[in-house]
TrEMBL record:
It comes from the Bacteria. It holds the Pfam family GerE. GO terms for biological process: phosphorelay signal transduction system; regulation of DNA-templated transcription. The keyword Ribosomal protein does not apply. The keyword Metal-binding does not apply. This is LuxR family transcriptional regulator. The modification 4-aspartylphosphate is found at D55. Keywords: DNA-binding, Phosphoprotein, Transcription, Transcription regulation. GO terms for molecular function: DNA binding. Residues 4-122 form the Response regulatory domain. Residues 149-214 form the HTH luxR-type domain. It comes from Streptomyces griseorubiginosus. SMART domains: HTH_LUXR, REC.
Length: 221
């Protein structure tokens, strides 16, 4: 299936470069471009992409607010957002995840890694640049806000809490299965049930819930 991508960045040359890169992938196509957050929201509603590659710093409406509007729009329930930032210390990344983004990458990511990130997020997985993740989580814990999901870990079974803790540490379904002695399909089923119970859009929100609730803390083994 072809992944339909909307590109949102206020720099024309950057958008052009991303468009060429996405177009070079056989399983992707660019279905729209936007130069501001407001344009990104409008374009998302018009073309209904599978994924929006969203710059954070844009005029008119920044990428965080644009992400929040897209995530809150029930007609765009299947649209996922991959946030790009120039600096891996950008303090707005956590707010972007809270707003509904499914992951983030820094702009100096290699082209092949960006394409892989698009595939990962479009498939429903969370994706966080590994380098700054710990720092961002620590910043998140210093500035708590209401949970993004409708439920809390207390509604989960013991096994589901184990799975959630591993999701929060960045393990994929195969790695979770190996750690807990499960089949990959069973691990995937657990993750899906956890998202349903917590009202989470994707694994990125599960990560936030796990840290916000204190189930997992930065630096824990």
């Amino acid at each position: 299936m072809t992944i339909r991508v909307l590109l949102a960045d206020d720099q024309t040359l950057v958008r052009a470069a991303f468009a060429m890169l996405v177009a070079s992938a056989r399983d992707m196509e660019v279905v729209g471009e936007a130069g501001s957050g407001r344009e990104a929201v409008g374009a998302a509603r018009e073309v209904r992409p599978d994924l929006v590659v969203m710059d954070i710093r844009m005029p008119d409406l920044d990428g965080i607010e644009a992400t929040r509007l897209i995530a809150a729009d029930e007609t765009l329930a299947g649209v996922r957002v991959l946030v790009l930032t120039t600096y891996d210390t950008d303090e707005n990344i956590v707010e972007a995840l809270r707003a509904g983004a499914s992951g983030f990458l820094v702009k100096d990511t290699r082209p092949a890694e960006l394409l892989d990130a698009i595939r990962t997020v479009a498939a429903g997985e969370a994706l966080l640049s590994p380098g700054p993740t710990a720092r961002l989580i620590e910043r998140f814990l210093r500035s708590p806000s209401p949970a993004v999901a409708t439920g809390g870990p207390e509604c989960l079974s013991d096994r589901e809490r184990e799975v959630l803790a591993l999701v929060a540490r960045g393990l994929n379904n195969t790695e979770i299965a190996e750690a807990l002695g499960l089949s990959p399909l069973t691990a995937k089923t657990h993750v899906s049930r956890i998202m349903g119970k917590l009202g989470a859009r994707d694994r990125a929100q599960l990560v936030i819930v796990a840290y916000e609730s204190g189930m997992v803390t930065p630096g824990a083994g």
